[in-house]
Hints:
The chain is an alpha/beta fold. The protein has one domain: Aldolase class I (TIM Barrel, Alpha-Beta Barrel), CATH 3.20.20.70. The protein has 12 helices and 13 strands. An 8-stranded parallel barrel has the order 3-4-6-9-10-11-12-13, surrounded by 5 helices. The longest helix has 21 residues, at 132-152. Flavin mononucleotide (FMN) binds next to β4 and α10.
Amino acid sequence: MLFEHLRVKNLQLENRIVVPPMCTYQAIDGVVNQFHHIHYGAMALGKPGFIIIEATGVTPEGRISDHDLGLYNEQQAQSFKELVTQLRTFAVPLAIQLNHAGRKSGTNDSVKYAPSSIRFDETMRTPNTLTQEQIKEIVAAFAQSAQYADEAGFDALEIHAAHGYLIHQFLSPITNHRTDEYGGTYRYRLRFLREVIAAVKSVWPKEKALLLRISADDYHADGNGLAEYVEMMKAIAKEIDILDVSTGGLLPIQPHVYPGYQLNYASVLKNTTQLPVIAAGLLHEYDLAQYALESGQTDLVAMGRAMLSNPHLPITLARKSGQRLLQQIPYNKGV
Ligand SMILES: Cc1cc2nc3c(=O)[nH]c(=O)nc-3n(C[C@H](O)[C@H](O)[C@H](O)COP(=O)(O)O)c2cc1C
């Protein structure tokens, strides 16, 4: 099952292993450099089914740090085009994750923005409340980055609505205290995400897959949990092609972590939205990944930290299961 094909829209995935987005903090001025070519090249050589490039800022102050990738100017756009062209050699479908960090931005820009003026913790600056005009500018920035991503040749695009960044800040009642049409009940708190999706879709080709990453639990009684996310995702399921399910990050809370700890969230959202899902969270052992897929709880399995530790992990797992991933002629000698 782990090495079964999956087709979703334009994506022809050779196996079910996804390299999830993982920030590497190696960029200068948001531009792709040699590090990214080698890093993602190594991952692609390992033959996962799908690679999602790390969180990439849609504006300078929307980056998580000054060393994040960005996709808001021509120089960055050109550097992404070169990366995609090079990675094409390995024939692994590629997505990019677009993000605005909101109150969790750690860049040197003087002002931070969020739905409401509530800081993450005492180490972070208190953000300014976004005006409606500024909200429109950020929505437009997502569309501009999506256009650059399409021109760069990406097969798919992931909107980052997880881990406590700006879109997540709008979704949660803990961080969104607005009294205008962007705040209130969940239907109003969804408005910003809906606007981002609509703006992205106005430029993103219909035939290319659109992914959404969410945190399906705020791990706080005053926030959203799985039940709230089921309602919110049912309301927008028609707008997206794959749901990438994570949890947490809104508050400085560390959940209890164990192999498969987020699997149930993916499973419930798969059943209630009927969307293909990606599950993440310590799913890198062959038997557990295989179980998650065979029991129908998820369609795809992210292997993040395990791919950092061994970028050839898919080849390693295939060998363990007596299979051989094709197109890896030089590495087959290592069996
Ligand atoms: C170094 C590092 C950077 C990460 N950066 C991102 C990111 O840019 N975007 C994102 O959605 N998640 C990010 N994550 C979360 C991973 O995508 C993944 O969900 C998490 O590591 C759990 O999967 P794993 O147990 O297979 O590592 C990051 C995780 C790590 C370890």
